[in-house]
Write a structure and sequence with these properties.
7 strands; 6 helices; 226 residues; alpha/beta
């Protein structure tokens, strides 16, 4: 089981329940973050926020994920560039393990998962499925000190299609690449908003939370996250 932390415009430490009435998972929200908040004040800052608040910070790779019923699109950000990665046709544990393996290969330390939101700003039945998968990924990721965030993906599918059409891609190419382009749109939105409005999926296990606080470890050192 996992909780989520809401990141938005000023900072508070008052936990609240998530407004999604369909979700049975306990959730803690940090609804607002001050622009002047220091990184030390935030428990688990996303890379986009770290980059915004500390212009000299260059680390941290992000994996964008567009979860579908049968296909999952992936995009990656290394530095300031966002690019397509691949489309996976996997489900269940095979998908989750493949995402962890790809993150390891790409030296990723955070996952940005697109969360379906309707045009009226409400969550959909698909949102619950995405939350469930993101929760399972978060547990596997936390073992390695990696973080998982949910990002509103409303409109990114349309944006992805328009991007491909403007690039002159054929119908066949658009069909094959649409999910990866949608993941790229999710990442671009995440960075354009500097991580504001994302929700962190936080495992309940205290030992995993401690690993998240320490952050990813390397073979040569075991430094704390900050």
């Amino acid at each position: 089981m996992a909780q989520t932390l809401q990141l938005a415009a000023t900072f508070t430490l008052l936990p609240t329940n998530h407004p999604n009435k369909h979700s049975s998972s306990p959730i803690m929200c940090f609804p607002k973050i001050r622009a002047e908040i220091s990184l030390q004040e935030h428990p688990f800052p996303p890379n986009a926020m770290r980059r915004k608040l500390d212009s000299s910070w260059m680390g941290g790779f992000s994996l964008g994920i567009d979860l579908g019923l049968s296909r999952t699109g992936l995009a990656i950000s290394k530095g300031f560039s966002v690019r397509l990665l691949k489309v996976l046709e996997l489900r269940g544990q095979k998908l989750e393990m493949s995402l962890i393996e790809i993150a390891q290969q790409q030296e990723v330390d955070e996952f940005i998962v697109g969360l379906p939101i309707s045009s009226d700003g409400k969550e959909t039945p698909q949102s619950n499925k995405v939350r469930s998968v993101a929760g399972r990924i978060a547990i596997r990721a936390a073992e390695r000190g990696w973080r998982v965030y949910l990002q509103d993906e409303h409109g990114t599918s349309t944006d992805a299609m328009n991007r491909m059409i403007n690039m002159g891609l054929s119908k066949t190419a658009r069909k094959q690449s649409h999910d990866a382009y949608a993941a790229m749109m999710v990442l671009e939105r995440y960075f354009s908003e500097h991580g504001k409005g994302t929700e962190m999926v936080l495992p309940k296990q205290l030992d995993l939370q401690e690993k998240l606080r320490k952050g990813p470890s390397s073979d040569s050192d075991d430094l704390d996250f900050y």
